[in-house]
Each structure stands twice: as structure tokens, then as C-alpha cells.
Amino acid sequence: MTWRDRRRARAAENRAMTRLTLGTSRWARGLALAVLLVLAAAWLVPFLWGVDTSFKSETDAATSATWLPPSGFTLDAYREVLSRGDVLRWTWNTTLVAAAVTAITVLISAMAAYAFSRTLFRGRKALLAVTVAAILVPPQILIVPLFQQMQAFGLVDTLAAVVLPQVVAPVMVFILKGFFDAIPEELLDAARIDGAGPWRLFWTIVVPLSRSILMAVAIFVFIGAWNNFLWPFIVTNDPALMTLPVGLATVKSAYGVQYAQTMAAAVVAALPLLVVFMLFQRRIVQSVATTGMGGQ
Amino acid sequence: MTVSSTPGVGATTQGTAAASSASPTRRRPAAATPDRARGTLRSRDRSGYLFVAPFVLAAALFLGWPIVSGLWMSLTNRSLTGSGNEFIGLANYAEAFADPQVWQTLWHTLLFTVLTTVPLVVLGLVMALLVHTGLPGQWLWRTSFFASYLLPVAVVTAIFAWAFQPDIGLFNTWLGNLGIPPVGWLTEEGVAMLSVALVTVWWTVGFNFLLYLAALQGIPGTLYEAATIDGAGGWRRLFSITLPQLKSVTGVILVLQLLASLKVFDQVYLLTAGGPNGSTRPILEYIYDTGFTNYRLGYASAISYVFFAIILVFTLVRLLPNRKER
User: Fold this and answer.
1) For residue B101, how many other CB atoms are within 10 A of its CB?
2) pLDDT tens-digit profile of B82-98?
3) Mutation target among A10, A56, A141 for the B interface, most CBs of B within 10 A
4) A230 and B265 in contact by Cβ < 8 A?
5) Contact predicate A108/B54, CB 8 Å
6) Which residues in A lie closer than 8 A to residue B297 (C-beta atoms)?
7) What mean pLDDT is predicted for residues B174-200?
């Protein structure tokens, strides 16, 4: 099946859906399309305004809110921001933090879910009950004791301190356990007869069969870690260690009224995740659909 | 055994395996077959501990221990500078209940929750229903509704602080063109909270949109076909099939939404820093200010626990009826 065939099939599917939901009335279609356009415009305008401002000179940005600047568009703001290098540095830090949080969270949550779902050990049920109860604890209320803990460990102002508290996601353990429970025992038994140990069962059967849910969990954990503000804001003071959300927020005061530069920094900061989403958006929607899960 | 029992996670002894848990999961064939004699079972036993150990360790360290130490801290007059470790009993709690700031910031938090929840759920649903019609431009609609959710909060607040700018901001310029006097979006009491709510809706509605869209795609097409054969029109299908099918996902979205709104801090802090005149300061910001600006860790912990108790009551009240339904 070529890419073009797939596109054609999708278009046909969409047309069928339109017939099903809106019927054949021209009027209904027109109305739905009009509402969609209005909503999309409302959601895109702030975006476009930010991008538009980032291409202005500081003087133009600070004089009037026109879409077309009097002295034309310029890349000055980007040059300025990129030459200072802090935005790139923060992007790198955020990528590191989000990747580390995602890898560790998905791994330890999947292992724990497997233990709850497929192995027997003393205290299993009690531990599961504690895990479910832990879902109810909002991490935000722990900022004070966590900060003291990081001071005690001597980790304040390290990326480790940003990552570690974020890897505990009891809700993910719970979601994954529900999914692992649905894997037929026969598949595992077949492998057991071949002499596979629990570790091999986990890696060769459970993980491959759960790819879609693991993907969805990873996506939400990643977005959460990428955009987390409060905890990194508390635990990092050194600009060289800041993540994007924190760096931009502190620099906003540093940039003062440099609107064009602030917007250029914001655009640079927003790009990585947006590009990833635009490339994989169909798959993201599908993985959420297959799992029917919510995020944090 | 390998796992040490820690204060945060009390792993008590329990009956062993054969009993299946209360949830309708598959029953594991326990020691049923001869080749699963006691020895194997015990080896599976150990593997269970090994698999669960990393998570338990992390949870004990970064969730269990802070819960316990925070509770202890709330009973002392500890300061960020390290001084003051005397046990003062419930004095912090007494102070918290008598502190007008606690109730005010709690009220701001609730107001924010009320202002954001309805538009976030309704708009998310409307967007998903419209996109689900399969009208042309799928990629554009999905991207424009969901993309804002992917922006770091500092980017969102930077864009809006700029658009809200009183003299040359985009919004006041538009109003000026319509002949309406400028609005102090972030500087007028009473308006600032609405502005923060508006920004929040723009920023996070994409998440609900995505959940609704996924739920819509999960509705079996046969239902619609059957209804169409029975002669149900478009509206009828919407109200008799689509909306009832979305009931459970709406419940999920509502709970997630309420909990997220109660924990608001980031966008308020960055847009208004709690101003003007403290009129938008949420309780989480009060906790932050108490602990990290005024150094009163003991008192900040006590407020945290009062807030936690409120969230807990709220969650349990919301969840218990649900359990009955299942």
C-alpha cells in the first residue's frame, strides 16, 4: 500500500464520516466549517502574533501593534538571542531532563506494573493499594520537604535534583497494570515452557505487546517533564542549569521590554516539541485512542 | 527478602497469591500445574520483588519520605535558614485556620477552577465533535487546537503578557479600533483573574480536545448505521448516541480538570505574580511565598497539608459515586 493509496483511503473515510455526522446538507457542512475556521483563527492568532513580533525590530515592536512593521521584517532578534546562547543551553537542559525523566519513569513504572500484574510476592496487594492511594498525592504540596531533602543530599542546583522527584508516577503504574492484565496468560506460559525467566518474559512478550500504551505513557510523561515549571524553578538558581520554562520566565525580567527578543526566544523554545507533534500527530491521537487514558 | 520496608511505603505481609484481586482481572493459574511447584513459585516470588523494587525505592525516597518529613516539619517552627527546630505542636495549624490569607488564596483558587472548568470541557467537546466530522483540513484543525498545549508555560505567558500590554498590546489595539477604551487586562482587580482564565483555556483546551477526539474515534460505527437505518437524523444521532457514549470520558476529563485547576500556580505567577493587589494569588503561591520568600518552612508545610486535606476530600467525594457505578 503506497503512501498515496493510504491518503486516498483516509480521504474516503473522512468523507464517509462527514456524511454520517452532518448528513448531505450543504448548509450543515458550511456552518460546521465556519465554526471550525473561527475557532482555529482564535487559537492561531496569539501564536502568529508572537511569531510576527519576533521578526520585528525592537523599535517597531515597541511602537504599535501592526502586523506589518513600518521598517520591514528582520532577523535581528533571533541573531541576538542565539548569540547569547542561553536559550539553546536551556533547550539542551530541558531535552536532557525530559528524556531522562521519560526513560526512567516508563522503565520503573512498567517493571512495577509487571510485578503487580504477573508475579506473586508477599505484600503484593498491600503495595498495590499503597500505590493507588499515592495517585491522590499532588506532588506540588511536597515542594518544601523535597527542597529540604535535596539540600540534605547536596543536590540543589543540579539536573539530578530536577529529574529525580519527577520519576515517581503511581498513576502510570496503575494504567500499565490494567493493560498488562489483559495480556493472555497462554502467551506467557508458552514462553515459560521454553524456559524463559521473568526478565525475558517481560522484555520479549509484555513490552512488545504493549508498545502503544508505553508510547502513550511516554508521550505524556515527556510533555509533562518538558513543561514542568514549579519544581525546576525552586531547585535551580544557576542560569546554566535552568530548563526552558524557568529560564524564559526569569529572563523575561532580564530582557526588560525587549519584546522582539522575548518573542524570538519563545519561538525557539516552542519549536522542538511542535515539530515533533506535527510529524507524529496522527500517531499521537491514535495511541491516546487505543489506550483511552488521560495524562497527569 | 530484598526489599526493606520504609516509612513511606508500608509493605505489610499479606495472604499469598492464589486469591485473585478484586478487580475483574484474569485469574492467574496459581500452583495448579505440577511443573509449578513451590520452588518455582518462590523464584517467581523473588522476581516480583526485583521488578517492583526500583519503583518502590523511588516512591519511598521522593514521595513517602517527603510526606512524612513534611508532616513532621509542619509541627515545628523550622526556617529555610536551618534555624528553629523546636516542636510546637499544632500551633502552625491553628495559625493557618486563623490566617485570612489562607482563605483568600483558597477562594482565588476555587474561583479560578470555576472560571476555567466549564469552558475547558465544553470547548474541548465542541472542537472534537467538529473535527470528528471529517471535514477537509484535518491536519490544520488538529494542529491549531492541540499545539498550544505543547508550549512551555513561560512561552504562553510571554505571548499573552505581550498581547495584554496596556498601551501597544494587540488586544487593546483591537478595542481601540472598535472605539472601546483600553482594558487593564492584568492590572485591574476583577479583570485579571478573567484574563488568567482566558490564557489557561487557550493553553490547555487541546488536551481535553484530544481525549474527546480519541473517545469519538472509539465509538463503534455500527451504532450509527443502526440508528440511520431507524431513520434518526443528525441531531438525534448526536444526542442519542454520541453524547451518551462520551459520558465516561467526560467524567475522567472533569476530574482531571478540577484537580489540575486546583493546583494552579505557574501561569498566575508568571502573568500577574498574584497581583493586582493579591487578587489572583492562588493557595499554591501562598505556600511558595511562605516557604521560599519568608523562609517559614514549618508554616508552609502546615498550609500544604490543609490544602492536601481539601483536595483529598474533594477527590474522594468525586470518586466514591463512580465506584458504585462500576
Assistant:
1) 15
2) 777 788 888 899 998 99
3) A141
4) yes
5) yes
6) 144, 148
7) 86
